Amino acid sequence: MSTAPDGTVLAAGCVLWRRSPWGDDGTEVCLVHRPKYDDWSHPKGKLKRGEAALAGALREVLEETGYRCTPGAALPTVQYTDHLGRPKRVEYWAAEAGEGRFTANSEVDRLLWLPPAAAHHRLTQPRDRQLLLALLDALHSA
């Protein structure tokens, strides 16, 4: 696990999206359910020692969702205190999903592809909702 000199836990993730497979020009966002916390969030995880944030974000997306992805715009960095009381900083990117297939595991037991409005309501943490809005802004600016 990588930490900053001040002890902050360093992590990274992506707000994973795809074009709707239904041909309606819509966008869908990937949410993962973590049974340990019983929450819905974006794929993310702690960086390995010496790992670059973007490399860690792409690794975590693949591990948690089974999808490879193409990173896009950097999204806001999120800082909060984790469940153990440690400061945590998570860097995020927008990322378009490529090929892949989800397989449930001990970290992530469910995955949903949802339209943005439904994803906004399903996300557990307000900070994750802000990231979703940042993704939509980035996609509309592209």
Automatic annotation (TrEMBL):
Keywords: Hydrolase. SUPFAM superfamilies: Nudix. Residues 7-137 form the Nudix hydrolase domain. Coiled coil: none annotated. InterPro entries: NUDIX_hydrolase-like_dom_sf (IPR015797), NUDIX_hydrolase_CS (IPR020084), NUDIX_hydrolase_dom (IPR000086), Nudix_hydrolase_domain (IPR051325). PANTHER family: BIS(5'-NUCLEOSYL)-TETRAPHOSPHATASE [ASYMMETRICAL], DIADENOSINE 5,5-P1,P4-TETRAPHOSPHATE PYROPHOSPHOHYDROLASE MUTT. This is DNA mismatch repair protein MutT.
